[in-house]
Amino acid sequence: MRWIPFLILAYLTILLQTTLGRVLMFSAAGIGTIGPDLAALLAVFVAFYVRTWADAMLAGWALGMAVDLTAVAGVGAGTVVGPMAIAYALVAGLLFRVREAFFRERAVTQAFLAWAFCLLAHGAWVSMQALLVDGPVGWPEYGRTMLQAVGLACYSAVLMPLMHFLLMRCQRWLLAAPVGPGTRPRR
Amino acid sequence: MGWAMRLRTTFSRKHVLAILLAFSVVAAAMGRRAARSLRQTAGVVLPPLADATMYAVTKLTSRLYSPGPEAISPEEAGRLQEENEYLRRLAAYWQYQQERYQRQAQELANFQSMYGPAQDLACELIPARVVAGGSLPYDGTRELTPGGGKGVQAGSPVTTRLLSTQRAKALPPKLAVLNANFLVGRITDAGAFTARLQLLTDRDFRANVRIRRVLTGPPRMVNITEGAQPRTTVLTAEINHPIEGMAHGDGADRLVVEDVKEYHKVRPGDLVLTSPLSGSVPMEIHVGRVVEVQRAKDPARVTLKVTPHAELASLRDVYIVSPVHPPAAEP
After folding, report:
1. Which string of DSSP letters, residue by residue, matches B241-266?
2. Does an H or E element contain B39, and which?
3. CA-angle at A63, arms to A60 and A68, nearest 5°
4. Cα nearest neighbour of A151 on chain B
5. Nearest Cβ partner of A19 from B45, B133, B313?
6. Nearest neighbour of B20 by CB, restricted to A16, A61, A66
7. Hey, are the CB atoms on A23 and B13 less than 8 Å from each other?
8. Which domain holds residue B176?
């Protein structure tokens, strides 16, 4: 894992998510705003191709912390820092463990794993924020935010194959020794 | 080289990961105060590059959301031309009346300034620019960089800036400029370099508002009480008192005003403004327009859906209305 290029890419991803990401969002009646989580897609990509589970979790933590620091509201009157970093790190570690069971090169698999990653990470984040935030959070609000999380997961899953294609272009620059078909050393 | 090797052996990536996860747990347990400090520190990193990107995004969204020209028939064009001519004449007449009224008002104002008590709005306008939004769609906030290095208080309302710069040349300062603006939200968190704007469509946004019924269109029958006897009558300018209410964001693109009494007969098209009674905004600032009136569970009450006047998707330059006196706590 090349950490300096990764951190630059993580910064640019968050920059895009907080600025250009607003263009990709739309309002769904009865649910609220739905938009993609580009940082989660980067975490999924890294978990696909890094050599060790510690690298996958560290990358997940860094991206989750960046999201935590830039997502102020959500559940209740304000959110705390930390839950997304923990959620991303744990789900990235889990994804690293199960990745061998999937054909990562297939777009459908990428979309499914991105969907599962977002659903688990955001589901955990919404639940943790609902428990940790000051003041009571009602079930209707919790349910609606969870619906938003499902919408976010579906939207992110749709974008994952494109993100994967773009990140594969700079895979060598990002990962020191990526794993997977086509990257094995020749005899 | 030896110490570096020893350090690498002592602190493996697993150790670093364990420390970082422990830090996350501690930060989460410390709550919102720790979150605010961490976000203010991190907020310094994002704005320099985000400003340029946000400029491009707001330009793009303002083009996307601006309505394009519609094709009209020659008959309709002719009718519109006649209507325009009529309206132009009408405008000239009203302009003359307005000038006459302004002269009278100016004379009265001069008289009041000489003999009456000083009247002023105890507010300061701080120009600010939106540099980023929240990273997640649950988040209805924007990050601002206030200009002039002035201190910004949490709770200060934020208005759009475009109209105020146009009007400031012709109208007296403060009062007229403020009335020409739309409310876009309030400050929830303010640091040394950045401030956090909570949009009025955010689910946690709350504000005291007043509804002003517009007297155009078909007459509306309202119930009024004179003495002990309520009676039904046509709403006129004399009895068109503003209706106070509490608005909150719906988490998407509208505001909701609940528990409005049905007998007020609020209709789509009526205006929603900030209430000077709230304390945080000592004047009426336009918020939006009622677009839908829904029956509540209680048949005597209705719920209003309000569309903000301000175009929040392409929000860029804003004014922070900073009261000179600290705002009173809102319910």
Report:
1. --EEEEEEE-SSS-EEEEEEEGGG--
2. helix B32-42
3. 115
4. B137
5. B133
6. A61
7. no
8. 123-201+314-323
pLDDT single digits (tens) B8-28: 656 688 888 899 999 988 888
Please answer whether residues A79 and A72 qualify as being in contact, where contact means their C-beta atoms are separated by less than 8 angstroms: yes
**What's the structural domain count of chain B?**
2
The pLDDT tens digits of the residues spanning A143-157 come to 888 888 999 999 999
- Report the complex ipTM: 0.82
Report the distance separating Cα B159 and Cα B180, nearest Å: 10
Are B265 and B127 members of one domain? no
Nearest CA in chain A to B16: A58
Task: Clarify whether residues B235 and B188 are in a common domain.
Answer: no
Do B138 and A33 lie within an 8 Å CB cutoff?
yes
Residues B194 and B248 in one domain: no
- Under a CB-based contact definition with an 8 Å cutoff, are residues A82 and B25 in contact? yes
- Asked if B27 and A27 come within 8 Å (Cβ–Cβ), the reply is no
Q: Does a structural domain hold residue B193?
A: yes
Gap between the Cα atoms of A39 and A37, Å rounded:
6
Q: Which of B25, B39, B54 sits opposite A86 (nearest CB)?
A: B25
Q: Could you tell me the pTM of the whole model?
A: 0.69
- What is the CB neighbour count within 10 angstroms for residue B106? 11
**Six-digit token pair at B36?**
């605010």
Rounded CA separation B7/B16 (Å)? 12
